[in-house]
Amino acid sequence: MLRLFQEHRVRDVEDLSGVWKFAPQGNPEWVQTVVPGVWETMPDYRRYRGEADYVRELEIRKPGNYLLRFGGVSHTADVFLDEAHIGHHYNAFTGFDCVLEQLKAGRHTLRVHVDNRYSEDSCLHVPNDYETYGGISRPVELHCLSEVQIERMSIQTFRTDEVWKAEVTVFVRAFEEIRDAVLLVHAGPCTEQIRFSLGRNEEKALPLTLTSREFAPWAPEHPVLYTARAEIRLGERIVDDLQDRFGFRKVAVQGEAILLNGQRIQIRGFNRHEDYGDFGCSIPVQAMMQDLSMMKTMGANAVRTCHYPNDMRFLDLCDELGMMVWEENHARAVPASVFHSPRFMEQCRQCNEEMVHQHGNHPSILIWGLLNECESETEAGRAIYAEQIAQLRALDPTRPVSFASCRCYTDICLDLVDIVSFNIYPQWYQMESVKTYMDRLLCWMEENGAAGKPILITEVGAGAIAGFHDPFGKAMWSEERQADILEEQLTVLQHEQRLSGTFIWQFADVPVDESWAHRRPKQQNNKGVVDRYRRPKAAFETVRKIYGETLHEGNSRAGTL
Ligand code: ADA
Fold first, then answer.
1. Which of 173, 193, 505, 507 could form a disulfide with 203 if both were Cys (CB 3.0 to 4.6 A apart)?
2. Which of 80, 113, 115, 82 is CA-nearest to residue 98?
3. What is the mean pLDDT of residues 329-349?
4. What does CATH list as the number for 148-246?
């Protein structure tokens, strides 16, 4: 299933996880594989980049309206039912639906044509410092619909006069004309309802407000979650329903501080790619949980979903564990020719919209990030940043927006964002001492748009080849050298009063595209504090010591403003 809780009690949902048939393009031999998954898990297709088909039968017991919901296909999907084209989607990291009206009862053949090639059409999936896999990488569901459908529900929470309020908007659409329907929304002690009618194929956004003194806030130390339940009644019948979990919390930027429910937060974070050992980007939920529990063991309280929106089950875990999240759109330092193409803008816009619509209710997401290390030092680049920042703010005015810059001393976009963020690698790519480097950069930032705003270090780290030890010489790529560098970096950054926190680059090693191999031993980005299979390197204990100390000191900067 796509989520870690039940989204529907009335709507019939079938989980299509399981064994599907698989064949790469032009290969008449079908083999069996499992969905969700990536084809790189099959020994014969470990290095396959191309097109492939996934096929399975659907048994439809009663005729009617249906919907296929895909959590993510890497990276381009064309969906066919009985060979009729019913959907197309680009981008591995956001979900999409295919609506099937008036489907006949009986057996149908579902075919998903998947393509993970790099091409001019693909501006977000480019050869990169991480891998783009191939396959139906996130779960798939078949939903049985009635005459009216709840498409989605948006929940934004506010606090006024000591009382929490949830503004809920339910997006509905009718397949046929419906009159005098009732939408009922329930959460905690509140129930609200609204009457509505819809013409055939009409869509509407229905707003409701839930207010109560009883609602308790969501915070990392006590991540209280509520379930909002929406249902549509036509006479005596409940014809559709949707449940989502949410939390009451307010994120705000006040001067140089990031506030959560009025308390200043101090981030001790990790960057984490969706990549695990031999599973690629299709990670079982147990492994997601293991990642979070390892991060928590080291004293971390936040994770950055570099460099794309994450699996909703991971975000569900973050909601439940009180892990704060910086979720990021899908764009990592693309080449200039791609960055300035209209296709790039179009694909980013779509990703931004899908990210906010699909993930906006997760209380753990505190910050929207965009365009990691793109061209923020030119006027043309600034226009692209400005447009996408405006789009994100229009989609969700309740969360601060930021981007991770590497344009030290040249960035001209810092005034555009709510939080200024930099990726820095002193002692790894730059040879200055961390303190000297940071002091100089902070001075420059203050004079170039960061004054009066919070500042985050969104990446800092060093590489080590797992298992390579050199305790005395501390050679480059040894675990000891990485641990030493991280110790210096974190010690300086944790005590720098001007910062609102740090995200270590990175939690785990990841394989990278071949074009990066000359800079990346073993064709991996080796800056993980654990390896691809989550075996800790020496730096694990270093981070645990430093993040842990800050945690136990109570962190003088965290607190009420
Ligand atoms: C960048 C980038 C990361 C990674 C990192 C590194 O800052 O954002 O994706 O490539 O550098 O390891 O050099």
1. 173
2. 80
3. 96
4. 2.60.40.10
